[in-house]
Design a protein that fits this description.
Elements lengths: L4 E3 L1 H13 L4 H20 L4 E5 L3 H15 L4 E4 L7 H10 L11 E7 L11 H12 L1 E7 L22 E5 L2 E2 L13 E5 L10 E3 L14 H4 L1 E5 L4 H13 L4 E5 L12 E3 L3 H4 L5 E6 L7 H13 L3 E3 L2 H5 L11 E3 L3 H10 L7 H12 L2 E4 L5 E3 L5 E3 L12 H14 L4 H19 L5 H6 L1 H7 L2
Parallel strand pairs: 1-7, 2-3, 2-4, 4-5, 5-6, 6-8, 9-18, 10-11, 10-13, 11-12, 13-14, 14-15, 15-16
Antiparallel strand pairs: 1-9, 16-17, 17-18
Helix pairs in contact: 2-3, 3-4, 7-13, 11-12, 13-14, 14-16
């Protein structure tokens, strides 16, 4: 979907060029984009005064159009531009503004709009411009950034200057950029809204993970058709029970735990299978297997992992399984999903000989080398597929930063795979359901409460 795609600066330029090639002029596209942004600003300004900071490029041109549209709507508008326009479209936008332009910070008031530099900036602001930006932001009660806040790198989300202001609203023009969904830049952007300008879907673009559409079971469904999920127990059975609890509420029709002994805490509606794992996995009805939560890291744990990899029809690898996994253990052709946090991701990269920096780059490289879909979890979670597909998660509750939430996420993902979803789809669905369950759980929840909210999250996706 075009409204969910996330583009690099280069992809955005190419997408805009396609519009130009189709007959839309740069000035016409600027009018469309800036007018859409101006409507958002008009609403939040609610008749209050607005100061627009314009730069020399087309982002500054957007600022002149925004100023003109707001003036037409009856707002008192001040335009500040430390540099004269350099592009033809920006020059035309300034001409049509046809109003006073200050060159220094002399305004204070209600709403500040940052149109100094946009998504094309890849270097720090010069000291003069950084000071001007900070000063104007401090003088206003409400702050809006157009496209990407000045001083934040569009493709990485890196904060290029110290003490950049925080914004109440960021208006992405045409398509989301990586900075909108990656830390640390994302933390400065406040609420975010997308202003469409007619950008077509871009082949190979990353996608934003949104609310999935999940179908209810068919009228003739039964427990095996909905999916039998096996969870491999280990040294710390509580983790597997957490995963099972979440898996039951994420759609699987039947959840079994494979363990040498039944744990007395196991609920009556979860079956424990105590036969040897290699023997238990001969059941052709087992649609997917989760291995790793509470597994342990000794020889017995590694043997269990080996049995799971050899015999499972589809596999989710989490926690200890990721620390024990070796390249020669992977079974070709078996759908696999790995769910590492940063420490586990670093270990996997060393194991598979991947050299890359950052969660996203590591996840993409690891997926390509290993053939696994990689759900790299953290404050800005991403999902990477071996074929290069990439999905980024919107921010989730910071209350998820508690032990056991990864076990819940793994259980959800395994449940979705047992129900027939491919690993990439299952991972994206799991990330959304996990975040929605956390939202519904409120602050300072326990992981048991989080797992119990998964059914509510699933209902919201039906």
């Amino acid at each position: 979907m075009a409204d969910a795609q996330i583009l690099t600066a280069a992809q955005m330029r190419a997408a805009e060029q396609a519009l130009f090639d189709a007959g839309t002029s740069v000035s016409e596209l600027m009018e469309i984009a800036a007018s859409g942004a101006a409507e958002w600003i008009r609403r939040v300004a609610a008749g209050r005064s607005v100061t627009v900071l314009c730069g020399p490029g087309n982002n500054g041109g957007d600022g002149y159009v925004i100023a003109r549209r707001l003036r037409e709507a009856g707002n008192a508008v001040t335009v500040i531009a430390p540099l004269a326009p350099k592009t033809d479209a920006a020059k035309e936008a300034k001409r049509r503004w046809d109003g006073p332009v200050a060159t220094s910070a002399s305004a204070e008031g209600d709403v500040f709009v940052d149109c100094l530099f946009g998504s094309g900036l890849a270097r720090p602001l010069v000291a003069e411009h950084a000071l001007l930006l900070r000063d104007l932001a401090a003088r206003h009660r409400y702050r809006v950034a157009v496209d990407v806040p000045s001083g934040i790198a569009s493709d990485s989300g890196a904060v290029l200057n110290e003490r950049l202001p925080t914004f109440d609203l960021t208006l992405a023009l045409g398509a989301w950029k990586f900075a909108h969904w990656r830390l640390p830049g994302r933390a400065l952007m406040g609420q975010m809204r997308l202003v469409p300008i007619g950008i077509a879907p871009v082949e190979g673009a990353a996608q934003l993970i949104g609310r999935p559409t999940i179908a209810a079971p068919l009228a003739d469904s039964h427990k095996y058709r909905r999916g039998l999920l096996g969870i491999v127990g280990g040294a710390m059975p509580g983790a597997g029970l957490l995963s099972a609890n979440a898996a039951q509420r994420a759609g699987a029709g039947y959840v079994k735990i494979f363990a040498r002994l039944a744990d007395p805490r196991t609920p009556a509606d979860i079956v424990t299978e105590t036969s040897p794992l290699a023997e238990a996995l001969q059941d052709a009805r087992i649609a997917a297997v989760l291995v790793g939560p509470g597994l342990g890291r000794d020889g017995a744990a590694k043997a269990l992992l080996g049995d799971a990899v050899r015999h499972a029809h589809a596999l989710v690898l989490d926690a200890d399984a990721l620390m024990l996994l070796a390249p020669n253990m992977l079974a070709p052709g078996v759908p696999m999903l790995a769910t590492p946090h940063d420490g586990e991701l670093e270990t996997l990269c060393r194991t598979f000989g991947v050299v890359a920096e950052g969660r996203q780059a590591r996840a993409l490289a690891l997926a390509k080398v290993s053939g696994m879909v990689v759900l790299a979890k953290g404050a800005d979670t991403c999902v990477a597929a071996p074929d290069g597909r990439l999905a980024l998660a919107p921010p989730a509750s910071s209350w998820l930063s508690v032990a056991g939430t990864g076990d819940v996420l793994a259980g959800i993902a395994a449940s979705r795979m047992a129900g027939g979803a491919d690993p990439f789809t299952a991972a994206c669905e799991a990330v959304w359901l996990h975040g929605e369950a956390a939202r519904r759980a409120g602050p300072a929840f326990t992981t048991t409460l989080l797992a119990e909210r998964v059914a509510e999250a699933l209902a919201a996706a039906l």
